[in-house]
Amino acid sequence: MKQQLYLWAGLLALALGTAGIALPLLPTVPFMILAAFCFARSSPALEARLLNHPKFGVHLVAWRDKGAISRRGKWSATIAFGVSIAIGFTALALPWSLLPLGVAGVCLSWIWLKPED
What we know:
The protein has helices spanning 2-22, 29-40, 44-51, 57-66, 71-91, 99-113. By secondary structure, it is mainly alpha-helical. It folds into two domains: 2-66, no CATH class; 71-113. Helix 1 (2-22) runs antiparallel to helix 2, helix 2 (29-40) runs antiparallel to helix 3 (44-51) and helix 2 crosses helix 4 (57-66). The longest helix is centred in the N-terminal third of the chain and has 21 residues, at 2-22. The model has no long low-confidence stretch (mean pLDDT 89). This is DUF454 domain-containing protein.
């Protein structure tokens, strides 16, 4: 039962990560990391396929081995958070417009403190 839950969670994360390729505010790599985590506990074949993927495999292996995020990934996250902050300031009233700024501050601090691959 637990193995099937991990499999379904991995498939859902994979689907969301795939959708994130086309949708700019939906992150791709974090969902792929989650999918690899779930597949490691449910389907070694799917995990190996994801880790050997030509586009995402390098990032997933770097995260798994060193907890590393590429500089390009860090800058992409920074730009995406900047867009979210701008949307928050224009679409939300105070004090709610400060929420994206706070979330971005915490998340970006964590991201930029991670090692680079």
